[in-house]
Amino acid sequence: MASPKNPKNYQAMTDQLNQLVEWFETDQLDLDQAVDKYQQALELLKQMEDYIKTAENRVKRIAAKFDG
To answer: Which residues lie closer than 8 Å to 43 by C-beta, 6 or more apart?
Structure first.
């Protein structure tokens, strides 16, 4: 099974997720590919969640510098 690429920015992750969603919306679904792509999508969603948490922490640190 192919592992998802590791995009470096949120837009790239969003684009990759959109490609996976578009694949699922096609009429030519293969069960084995579907399972692989489903796993890729879940892994990508986890990466996106981690990316957002990191961004939130950065914003909090930046804001703390200007609050003090």
So the answer is: 3, 4
- Specify the DSSP class assigned to residue 8: S
Cβ atoms of residues 2 and 36 within 8 Å: yes
> Cβ–Cβ contacts within 10 Å for residue 16, how many?
19
Compute the distance between CA of residue 49 and CA of residue 68 in angstroms, rounded to an integer.
Answer: 29
For residue range 14-30, list pLDDT tens digits in order: 999 999 999 999 988 89
Residues 6+ apart with CB under 8 A from 55: 10
Q: What is the pTM of this model?
A: 0.78
